[in-house]
Amino acid sequence: MISAPLFCSTPAFSTSLPFSLSSASASSRTKFINPSVTKPPSTFCVPRTAAFSLDLRDDHSKTCTAVPRATLQEVNIDEDVMLSEDTAMDAKDIQFVEHLLKLEDNMERYTTLMKLLKQDESRFFRISQANLSTILPIIYTPVVGEACLKFSDLDIPKRGIWLNVWEHSGNVYETLKQLAIEQVDVIVVSDCERILGLGDLGANGMPIPVGKLLLYSACGGIVPKNTLPIVLDVGCNTDAIRENAKYTGINKPRVDKETYNKFVSEFMDAVQRLYGKECLIQYEDFGNHNAARLLKQYRDDYLVFNDDIQGTAAVGLAGILAALNIDKVNTDLRHHKFLFLGAGSAGIGIADLIVLALVQKGMSTEEAREKCWFMDSKGLIYNGRPAKLTKEKESYAHNITSTPNDTTDLKSMIELLKPTALIGVSTIKGAFDQSIIQTMCSINAKPIIFALSNPTSKSECTAEQAYNYSSGNVVFASGSPFNPVLLNGHTYIPGQGNNCFIFPGLGLGVALSKASVVHDSMILAAAQKLASLVSSDRLASGCVYPNIDDLLDISAHVAKAVWSEADRLRVAGKSGVDVTVTDIRSSMYEPGRVRLSGY
Questions:
Q1: Domain Malic enzyme N-terminal spans what residues (predicted)?
Q2: CB under 8 Å to 171, separation ≥6 — which residues?
C-alpha cells in the first residue's frame, strides 16, 4: 500500500504558542505591519540581487490558484494594517493570517494550513516565509506533536509515502519508481519509534517528516516538489495507537531486528538507485537503539544526516558558543564543563560536537571528552559504574575520586562536578527545579542552562522558572518556544534551540555543493556560523539565537559555510569558491512576500 496520507487519536495533548491569540479588545488587536517601515535590518541580512541563478527556483510554483472563499471566510482587515505599494496585492494573505489567529485552537490552525498547502502550495509558502515566527510553531514544534497524537482524527489532505515491511519488502524500488518523481533533493524518513518525547506512534508520525520538509522549503529555499516525506511502517509497540480503528498503518507490533535491518537496507539502496547519490536522506525520530547505529552504518556510502543527533548537536553547540559572548560567562570554551541530563542520541551528539570544537582548539580527544559528563536513568555515567553502558556512553565514562551514595540525585552531581553548563535532553518535565537552578547559580557567576527537551510538556523547566529562580542570572535556552519574561524591569528573551536554524541551511548547502557525504566538520561549520549571526542586542537580552523571522537569510549563510567546508574537505562535487551568500540567497525558492509582525 502506498498512501499519500498525513496525521492519530489518543490522549489530550497541551501545547502553547509563543504569542497571544486573543483579539478581544482594540488594545490587543493583531497588527500586520510592513517590515520596511518598522523593522531595522539584521546585521547579516543578505541583498537579494544575485548576478546569476543557482537554479533552485521552480518557476511553475509561482502560478497561484484562488483559494475558495469558504476556506478564507470573510474577515475585516484591521485598521492598523499598513501596506506598501509592492505588497498591496497581498491583502487577502493578510486576511488569511488574521483569520488563522482567530481560530479556536492549535489543531484548527494546523488543519487550515494543511488544507491551504494542498489547495495552493505557492500561497502557503508565501505566507509562511513572510510570517515564520507565527507559522513555524503551528506547522512544527510544538503543535506537530499534537498533530501526531491526533493524526487519525484530523480532517486534512494526506501527504507523504508509507512503505510497510509486510507489503513492500522486496519491491521498494518498484514501488517508489511508480511515483514517477524525476528529481528528489531531500528525503526525510522516519520509522516513528521515538516521536519527539511522545514515544512510539507508529505510522501516525507522518506529520514529522512532512513538517521537516515544509521547513526545508520555507526556511531553506528548497523547491517543495523536490522533497519527499516517507514513513517506514515496521510496526508499532504502543497498543493504544496501533489498535485504534482509524490507525493509518498496519496493526502489528514492530518487526525483529533482522527483518528491520533488511528493509532499511533495501530502502536506502532503492533511494540511491532512483534519485542518485546526491539525494540527501535525513533520518528523523528513529529509536535511540537504531538512530546512531544507522547513521554510522550508512554515512560513508550515502548522503545521510540525522537531525535528532547532528542537527540538535549543531543548534546546541551554536547556543553555547553564542553564550560565551554574554557578560559574566567565561569566553573560552576550554574552561567550561558540561553536565547532560539524558544520555540518548541527542545528548551524545551535542557532546561529540563540543569535543570536535575543543579538538579544533588544540585539545586532545580524551581531554575534550572529560569536559562532558552524563546522567541517564541509572544515574551518573562514570568509569566502573555497575550498570551496563552502551559503546557511545562508554566514551563519556570518566574517573571519579569517590563514588557518592546516590549518583541518581542531580543536585548532588552538580555539587560534585561543578559544571558551568547544564543541558537537559531527558524529556523529564520539571527536572530543573528551583533547587537545581539555584545550585547552578551558587557555583557559577552566570550558568548556562538549556532545557532542550521537546515538546513543551516535556521541558526540564520553563523560561519563567529559569529566570525567576536565578533572579535573571542565567543564560537560558529551550527546545520549544517560550514567551519573553519581564523581571525587575528587564525583559529576557529565551532562545529557542530550534533545529530549523541548522538543517534547512545545511541541506541547502549539501544540495548546492553536490557533496558526497555529510562530514562532522560540515556540521561544526554550520554551528559556528549560526553562533556568529546572533546580534549584540539579542545577546544583551539573554538570547543565544538569532530572530527566527530571519531564517531565509540565516540559511543562506549556513549553506555557504557548509559548502565552503565541503570544498575544503574535497567532498564537494561542485566548487562554491566563487559563489557568495548573496548568490545563494537570491536563488532560494521564495514565491512572494508579505510580513506579519507585532508578536
A1: 117-299
A2: none
Q: Given the C-alpha cell 510554483, which residue does it identify?
A: 61
From the list 549, 509, 513, 540, the residue with the least C-alpha distance to 527 is 509
**Distance between CA 100 and CA 71 in Å, rounded?**
10
Q: Which residue type is seen at 329?
A: V
Q: Between 16 and 154, where is the model more confident?
A: 154
Phi, psi (5° rounding) for residue 216? -55, -35
For residue 194, give the nearest of 309, 286, 84 by alpha carbon. Answer: 286
Residues recognised as catalytic: 140, 212
pLDDT of 299: 97
579, burial (CB in 10 Å: exposed 0-12, middle 13-18, buried 19+): buried
How is residue 565 written as a grid cell?
Answer: 567546508
Hunting for cell 570544498 — which residue is that? Answer: 567
Q: Residue 1 CB: number of other CB atoms within 10 A?
A: 13
Decide: residue 546, CB within 10 A, 0-12 exposed, 13-18 middle, 19+ buried.
Answer: buried
Burial of 366: CB neighbours in 10 Å, binned 0-12, 13-18, 19+: exposed
Start and end residues for every CATH 3.40.50.10380 domain found in the chain: 7-20+147-302
- The phi and psi torsions of 231 (rounded to 5 degrees) equal -115, 130
Q: Which contiguous run of DSSP H or E holds residue 140?
A: none
Q: Which helix (H) or strand (E) holds 245?
A: none
Residues annotated within a binding site = 194, 284-285, 308, 454, 498
Q: If you write DSSP's letter for every residue of 83-133 in order, what string do you get?
A: --GGGGGGHHHHHHHHHHHTSSSHHHHHHHHHHHHHH-HHHHHHHHHHTHH
- The binding site for (S)-malate consists of 194, 454, 498
Closest alpha carbon to 149 in 214, 238, 213, 210: 238
**Using one digit for the tens of pLDDT, what is the confidence trace for 21-53?**
223 332 322 223 222 223 334 445 564 433 333
Residue in the block written with cell 511522545: 198
Residue range(s) in the chain whose domain bears CATH number 3.40.50.720: 311-497
Beta-carbon contacts of 402 under 8 Å, excluding residues fewer than 6 positions away, are none
pLDDT at 452 over 90: yes
Q: Judge: domain 311-497, CATH 3.30.420.40.
A: no
Query: pLDDT band at 12, cuts 50/70/90?
Result: very low
Do 2 and 178 contact (CB within 8 A), yes or no?
yes
**Which H helix or E strand runs over 226?**
none
Q: What is the mean pLDDT of residues 299-315?
A: 96
- Quickly state the pLDDT bin for 405 (edges 50, 70, 90): confident
CATH superfamily of domain region 7-20+147-302: Malic enzyme, N-terminal domain (3.40.50.10380)
Mean local confidence (pLDDT), 388-408 = 90
Residue whose C-alpha is closest to residue 420's, from 491, 304, 504, 336: 336
Query: Which backbone phi and psi does 82 adopt, to 5 degrees?
Result: -120, 120
Per the model's pLDDT, the better-predicted residue between 326 and 594 turns out to be: 326
232 three-state secondary structure: strand
DSSP character string of 409-443:
-HHHHHHHH--SEEEE-S--TT-S-HHHHHHHHHH
Task: Fill in the DSSP letter of residue 211.
Answer: H
